[in-house]
Amino acid sequence: MTEPLSADLVALLAGKTSLAALCGISPQQLDELYARGYQAWEEGNLDTATHFFAFVAQFDPAARRNIFAYACALKQQGEYVHALRLFSHAVQMQPSDPFAPFHLANCLEAIGEVEGAREVLNATISLCFDAANSDVRYEDLRRQAEDRLTELNG
Question: What residue spans define the domains of the chain?
Fold first, then answer.
């Protein structure tokens, strides 16, 4: 292995650079690719959206939106275990945001982990109460989580 390549790999593994930077892909290009994925998502083209989100998540995994978007696309395709892992990572990246835990709970329920889903929905509701003053979307999400929890508690 050549010295520059070795240094690049060490920097990548240490989180000091991204695969995108090593490949010469600019942040603007990543933003454009994300936007194309989002547009495909909005148009209902889930396969295309998933491909774009997978690309940006792999080439810039430090950007939470990339991880979250890829997880959402995988969830929509029924890839619950893979989505669960990515939502878990998104929660670790931004623990105060209730959206990733909500989706994580949906994935847990889908794979039969109902008790885990209940726990995560309760956490989602708490996070929504904590953040309700800063964003009205949290109130809607809290209601959805409460409704889902009521259904699970049957």
Answer: 17-77, 95-154
